[in-house]
Amino acid sequence: MKNSTLGGLAVLFFLLAAASLSADLKVGEKAPDFTGVDANGQSHTLSSYQGKIVVLEWLNHECPFVQKHYNSGHMQKLQKTYTAKGIIWFSIISSAPGKQGYCTPEQARVLTKEKDAAPTAVILDPEGKIGRLYDAKVTPHMFIIDQNGVLVYNGGIDNIRSTNIEDIPKAINYVEQALEEILAGQEVSVKTSQPYGCTVKY
Q1: In DSSP terms, which residues pair with 45 in a beta bridge?
Q2: Distance CA 87, CA 82 (A)
Q3: Distance CA 199, CA 138 (A)
Q4: Radius of gyration of the chain (CA)
Q5: Helix or strand holding residue 38 (H, E)
Q6: How far apart are CA 138 and CA 131, in angstroms?
Q7: Which pTM value belongs to this model?
Q8: What is the pLDDT of residues 76-94, one digit of tens each?
């Protein structure tokens, strides 16, 4: 009995500790600030972009779920469409050295050019600090921060969990939907969804 009680307390403590790690990340509240360095060596601090909408896209080009959206040209189309409207789009690579998806600055620049990707910047996060701050679980895991610096979306890119390019036109794209709502001065209708993809390789 005593051991089972101790075991129960240990499990409870673990759950509380795990919950506290992401307790600061809540949709509808201020997004956690961070500073990251991109593939060109330029530093970006989230709070310096207040007044603009910011998209965070967790990226691993070796992940088949990411490849679905890049090989189809779909992610690049979103990037080009919304950066042209003044939206800041950060692709963030949190893969650790030696893990799948890790990129040196030069590799990240080459991949961005090869894929014809068009984010505002590709931020390299090899220590996983930004990824853990946002509790980024998979690639692609998507976050949207509004003009007031408030996190308004946390979840998957769309509602069809697959690696099949043919599913893209059938899916509800939550990121596109949320961005259009924000630009129209409306409240984001779908604020959270289940992210899907490959686990972030911390």
Answers
A1: 35
A2: 5
A3: 4
A4: 18
A5: strand 35-38
A6: 10
A7: 0.88
A8: 999 999 999 999 999 999 9
